[in-house]
Amino acid sequence: MENELKGAWHQFQDVIHDTAEQVHHAVDDITQQLKAFSHPAFPQYTMRYKKPSLCDPDVKQISGYLDVDDDKHFFFWFFESRNKPKEDPLVMWLNGGPGCSSLTGLFMELGPCTVNKAGDDTTINPYSWNTNSSIVFLDQPLNVGYSYGNGGATNTVDAAKHVYAFLQLFFQKFSEYEHLDFHVAGESYAGHYIPRIGTEINDNNKGHFQPASLLNEYASELKTINLKSLMIGNGLTDPLIQYKYYAKMACDNSYGPVLDRSQCDAMEASYPACARLIERCYKSQSVFSCLPAAMKCNKDQIQPYQQTGMNPYDVREKCKGGNLCYEILGSVQTYLNRDDVKKAVGAPNIEKYESCNMQINFRFNLAGDWMRPYVNELPPLLEDGVRVLIYSGDADFICNWMGNKAWTVELPWAGKDHFKAADDVDWLSPAGDKVGELRSTDDGQFAFLRVAGAGHMVPYDQPEASLEMLNRWVRNELA
């Protein structure tokens, strides 16, 4: 009898212990999810967050959502620098699309960890950009990656306003990072996003709020964002010039032709008509001019390459799998659809994570955003001292180095003549190996870097060189 009572008592204690543990975890989950705050200048925005320990458990992390009007929710994931987080710069990373998740950058390219083939675990990335910088990945525009909601931006200008609000709320709550040098980096369609985001930050730093009536009352509450530079990798920034180089990249790249000469000749012959349409778009920026330009030029200049079955992001490779031709993106999707991962980062409401949302791509295209001249945002930023790096993997077709270099040389700004006359010099690794070719102003204000042996996603193909590029660029020691 005594033994039975003892057994019952132990069972009772176990039940109490298990219940207490469940209550503790439930309370912890609730308190984590309810850490929310707002900003007086942005009454329609709130931010909620938690502190996960996935991917790089040895550094401080913050993940969560920027909520807008209760029906728009933008996901972010922040990692502190592995080095000196109180001193190292802060980088915001954006993938492109439009409609592709910045978590691609996190788990495939430059983030603290890489997903394994099975999609059930991660390994530390020794060449992560948070080696010497803190970094925040932002899923934008709406319904990209872990972000979700109704409506949302259909153009780059509107999308940039949400990014500025995100930064204001982030720095308000996590003020220990507001003094750090701040850099905006990204690739592909981020060649649109980043110049406009730079303008949004720079204009607001100077008090040129749009619309002024909304923010003047709370101007003293706004942080001056310490914007130092923009970094655009294999971006779509100046379509008028860049579309001219598709034929040349298809037939005359250093890795060997993808198309035969007659196809490239046909592409070159059709470019003048394409250019006229883009010029009309640049002049009016109306959807009625910009949408026909995108439809005509993409058909004539990009479709012939796509029909070959080769990877448009790497002329050296066949397209593999349905996820932007990279099998690893299937593994990333598997990992980010795990319930435990979604719970850990505060995204349990996401039914299905996808690397790219093609509906967003379609909506931006339909709004005429694809061909608009966001390149025009850059000269005023350069004049105001914001440094700009354009870098390009030399095996990419879709936003190739030839077109990117061409527009940097022709960019109309105060340093144009100096930049145009500058020499292209070998860019060397610390070991003395040539890993690229650099053209830069003497003061490092504006630079173009061709990265050898890399496709559209430079940090994926050349991780060590990409980290070296970042570290030297933020110290203004790229040359």
Automatic annotation (TrEMBL):
Gene Ontology annotations for the cellular component aspect, listed alphabetically: fungal-type vacuole lumen
Protease listed as a keyword: yes
Protease in keyword set: yes
Entry keyword set: Carboxypeptidase, Disulfide bond, Glycoprotein, Hydrolase, Protease, Signal
Signal sequence interval, chain numbering: none
Enzyme class: hydrolase
Molecular-function GO term, any one: serine-type carboxypeptidase activity
Family matches, as Pfam families: Peptidase_S10 (PF00450)
EC number: 3.4.16.-
InterPro entries, sorted: AB_hydrolase_fold (IPR029058), Peptidase_S10 (IPR001563), Ser_caboxypep_his_AS (IPR033124), Ser_caboxypep_ser_AS (IPR018202)
GO annotation (BP), single: proteolysis
Catalytic activity: Release of a C-terminal amino acid with broad specificity
The family this protein is said to belong to: Belongs to the peptidase S10 family.
Descriptive protein name: Carboxypeptidase
Organism: Absidia repens
